């Protein structure tokens, strides 16, 4: 079964080309028309590999009032994502191979973005007893994490890194020292003190990364093969701990989220819990340093940490409202509009496609013949305002509401099948 | 959310961000008039007749609630009280739903107390009606600061050049934050003082505000010394080694006040922990203006209600 996308440009080229897909694999470029099969017009847009989301909360099982696989994966596809890793802090927690299989089966029938499951590192994400890691891997889990919780017991994390390392699996961590974070609901600093809102110091993130890096260093030195991935870095201090670890040649990777690059704790002056997220929005100096981290290669990938909640939950006060910001549908336009020029489009694409693939140990996506046909076409020119009412996600609100952005996805193809079309 | 109202007059009193010094002085002048009303045999004026004021207290408070309710009633407003522990709200109803339900009863203004900083801002956003913040989390307690300012002004005639030392648990205090915002706008200098664990350095960046950990240095030359209430739970939080350790250094007592200006007055936002943050003899002594603060509070709150509710649509 063939599909041909016509009228698209590759990065750095002005030539309008066509790409033909056969059985989910890129067959070739600019092939004669008789082999095209079904055709889709790329409308002169730019074609890149479909984005990879290393970190999203799709809330299934058990929290489907916030999001479910159908809404979350439709939102991802509309955002240009072809592959999405969902986090296991659900209800029940994804710590059982049967849940991993059930989610994958359900997602496969939807024809949207492809689902990959991150399984819990510990049973119930309680941080006490390791989950059945090899069975979870066998079932298809792509990483282990207790995200949503912090790994307070350092010995259990050490055991997890050892065991997961032997399976060549990455352990990703929500790096915050919960005792230092305490009851903080926003960045601790000038703004939190002026507002009288309990703060979370950057030291909570940096100290936890320092601890985890030393565990990795020790394990690696004695011959283990740990792989540590630091999720959603928020602070300059945290970034510097990762930078040092990389200089030491340690197997540590990290991700940064668009909201930490583009928003600061000043947003909390509105007292709007929409901006309540963990780790919290920091200062402009932190955001600037995270951007430096993109430039100098400290940051391996971009992950949105898409964290939908119901509107009513986010309309509670700052202490009561849950942590998390949803915006997977506009993450690419946000990043493209803000950073395509400063960063270079190629670098940005790398951070949102090949970057996450390297972290996960997947082959790097490619547009060459023979590569899997996970593709995304975006319109680099047309500006449009963000209108959350049109979101596929159940969370119809977002911090970028009303902002004028460009780079909007036109087409997302997953395994040779159209998962999203702007038409 | 403190969108300016007609003629630059703020629509709400959430904090002092949008309040110009002249407006604040007008509020204090209004309190003079109200104090006069309160000294009459019949302590009631018809200014708010026909208006319904809702006191929405999501956190317990007896004193502030009584003060506001009396203030509203003495101006002939109908007063409706809504009391809910923060917990009952967390059982399902969002703050927005609660406020919209109340608004359906056609309230004309809200007086809001809540354990979360910013909650009064949210009520203003969701209700569309004038909101007076009666204390939100650690954020602000503007009428308390106004009555403090009024009490100091009563003593000295003017706040310009006056030095006010605020001593105690600054970190958790909305009273300290509101005073640090208000008093410099009226020309006073504020010194915040407390143990380093309870004295956030960032507050020193506010205009007219100095931070000092040594209480003797803090009260030197002060015209007014305010002791903040010390919550017993701060011990469990590890902020302090012991009550005694705090008392030894930070209690407002005669020995400490010897360093202040002659005739310096003593304030406390209440309720007091006698012989903890303030010694009993000072609380009852001639420097104390603590009971005066309470009666001034009613007049100040009447003035605030008048400014926000009278003379607009």
Automatic annotation (TrEMBL), chain A:
Domain Dihydroorotase catalytic, chain residue ranges per copy: 46-214
Pathway participation: Pyrimidine metabolism; UMP biosynthesis via de novo pathway; (S)-dihydroorotate from bicarbonate: step 3/3
Cofactors (names): Zn(2+)
Binding annotation for Zn(2+) 2: 147, 174, 232
Residues bound to substrate: 57-59, 89, 309, 323-324
Catalytic activity field: (S)-dihydroorotate + H2O = N-carbamoyl-L-aspartate + H(+)
UniProt function note: Catalyzes the reversible cyclization of carbamoyl aspartate to dihydroorotate.
Family: Belongs to the metallo-dependent hydrolases superfamily. DHOase family. Class I DHOase subfamily.
Protein name per its UniProtKB record: Dihydroorotase
Native source species: Deinococcus piscis
TrEMBL record, chain B:
Any Pfam family hit: OTCace_N
Domain Aspartate/ornithine carbamoyltransferase carbamoyl-P binding: 11-154
Enzyme class: transferase
UniProt entry keywords in alphabetical sequence: Pyrimidine biosynthesis, Transferase
Residue numbers binding carbamoyl phosphate: 63-64, 113, 141, 144, 270-271
Functional pathway: Pyrimidine metabolism; UMP biosynthesis via de novo pathway; (S)-dihydroorotate from bicarbonate: step 2/3
Tagged with keyword Metal-binding: no
Classification via InterPro entries: Asp/Orn_carbamoyltranf_P-bd, Asp/Orn_carbamoylTrfase, Asp/Orn_carbamoylTrfase_sf, Asp_carbamoyltransf, Asp_carbamoyltransf_Asp/Orn-bd
Binding residue positions for L-aspartate: 91, 174, 229
Aspartate/ornithine carbamoyltransferase Asp/Orn-binding domain residues: 160-308
EC number, as in UniProt: 2.1.3.2
Quaternary structure note: Heterododecamer (2C3:3R2) of six catalytic PyrB chains organized as two trimers (C3), and six regulatory PyrI chains organized as three dimers (R2).
Similarity-based family: Belongs to the aspartate/ornithine carbamoyltransferase superfamily. ATCase family.
Protein task: Catalyzes the condensation of carbamoyl phosphate and aspartate to form carbamoyl aspartate and inorganic phosphate, the committed step in the de novo pyrimidine nucleotide biosynthesis pathway.
HAMAP family to which the protein is assigned, alphabetical: Asp_carb_tr
The name this protein goes by in its record: Aspartate carbamoyltransferase
Gene: pyrB
């Amino acid at each position: 079964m063939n599909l041909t996308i016509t009228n698209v440009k590759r990065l750095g080229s002005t030539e309008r080309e066509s790409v033909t897909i056969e059985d989910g694999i890129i067959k070739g470029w600019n092939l004669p028309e008789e082999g095209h099969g079904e055709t889709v017009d790329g409308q002169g847009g730019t074609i890149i590999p479909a984005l990879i989301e290393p970190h999203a909360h799709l809330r299934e099982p058990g929290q489907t009032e916030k999001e479910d696989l159908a809404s979350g994966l439709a939102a991802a596809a509309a955002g240009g994502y072809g592959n999405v890793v969902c986090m296991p802090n659900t209800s029940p927690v994804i710590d059982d191979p049967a849940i991993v299989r059930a989610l994958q089966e359900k997602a496969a029938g939807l024809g949207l973005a492809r689902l990959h499951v991150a399984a819990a590192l510990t049973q119930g994400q309680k941080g006490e007893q390791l989950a059945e890691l090899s069975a979870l891997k066998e079932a298809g889990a792509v990483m282990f994490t207790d995200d949503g919780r912090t790994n307070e017991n350092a010995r259990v994390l050490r055991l997890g890194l050892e065991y997961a390392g032997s399976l060549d699996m990455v352990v990703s961590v929500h790096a915050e020292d919960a005792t230092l974070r305490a009851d903080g609901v926003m960045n601790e600093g000038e703004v939190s003190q002026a507002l009288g809102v309990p703060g979370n110091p950057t030291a909570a993130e940096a100290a936890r990364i320092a601890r985890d890096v030393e565990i990795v260093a020790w394990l690696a030195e004695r011959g283990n093969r740990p792989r540590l991935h630091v999720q959603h870095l928020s602070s300059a201090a945290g970034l510097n701990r990762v930078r040092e670890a990389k200089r030491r040649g340690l197997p540590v990777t990290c991700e940064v989220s668009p909201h930490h690059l583009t928003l600061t704790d000043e947003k909390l002056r509105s007292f709007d819990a929409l901006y309540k997220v963990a780790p919290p929005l920091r200062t402009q100096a932190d955001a600037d340093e995270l951007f430096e981290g993109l430039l100098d290669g400290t940051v391996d990938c971009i992950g949105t940490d898409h964290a939908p909640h119901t509107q009513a939950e986010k309309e509670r006060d700052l202490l009561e409202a849950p942590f998390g910001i949803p915006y997977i549908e506009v993450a690419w336009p946000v990043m493209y509009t803000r950073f395509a020029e400063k960063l270079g489009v190629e670098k940005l694409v790398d951070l949102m496609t090949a970057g996450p693939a390297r972290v996960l140990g997947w082959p790097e996506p490619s547009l060459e013949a023979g590569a899997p046909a996970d593709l995304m076409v975006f319109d680099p020119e047309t500006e449009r305002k963000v209108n959350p009412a049109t979101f596929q996600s159940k969370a119809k609100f977002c911090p970028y509401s009303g902002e004028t952005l460009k780079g909007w996805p036109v087409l997302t193809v997953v395994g040779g099948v159209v998962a999203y079309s702007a038409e | 959310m403190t969108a300016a109202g007609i003629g630059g007059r703020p629509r709400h009193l959430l904090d002092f961000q949008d309040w110009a010094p002249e407006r604040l002085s007008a509020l204090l002048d209004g309190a003079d008039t109200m104090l006069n009303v309160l000294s009459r045999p019949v302590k009631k004026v018809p200014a708010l007749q026909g208006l319904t004021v809702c006191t929405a207290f999501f956190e317990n408070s007896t004193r502030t609630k009584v003060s506001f309710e009396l203030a509203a009633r003495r101006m002939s407003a109908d007063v409706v009280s809504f009391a809910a522990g923060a917990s009952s709200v967390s059982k399902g109803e969002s703050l927005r739903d609660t406020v919209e339900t109340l608004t359906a009863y056609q309230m004309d203004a809200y007086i809001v107390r809540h354990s979360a900083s910013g909650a009064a801002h949210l009520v203003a956003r969701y209700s569309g009606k004038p909101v007076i913040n009666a204390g939100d989390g650690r954020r602000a307690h503007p009428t308390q600061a106004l009555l403090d300012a009024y009490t100091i002004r009563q003593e000295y005639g003017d706040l310009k050049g006056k030095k006010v030392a605020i001593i105690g648990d600054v970190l958790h205090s909305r009273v300290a934050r509101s005073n640090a915002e208000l008093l410099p706008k009226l020309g006073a200098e504020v010194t915040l003082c407390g143990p380093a664990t309870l004295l956030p350095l960032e507050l020193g960046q506010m205009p007219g505000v100095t931070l000092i950990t040594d209480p003797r240095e803090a009260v030197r030359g002060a015209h007014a010394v305010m002791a903040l209430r010390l919550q017993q739970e701060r011990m469990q939080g590890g902020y302090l080694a012991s009550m005694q350790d705090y008392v030894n250094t930070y209690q407002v007592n005669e020995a400490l006040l010897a360093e202040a200006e002659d005739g310096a007055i003593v304030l406390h936002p209440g309720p007091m922990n006698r012989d903890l943050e303030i010694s009993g003899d000072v609380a009852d002594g001639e420097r104390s203006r603590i009971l005066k603060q309470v009666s001034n509070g009613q007049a100040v709150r009447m003035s605030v209600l008048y400014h926000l509710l009278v003379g607009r649509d």
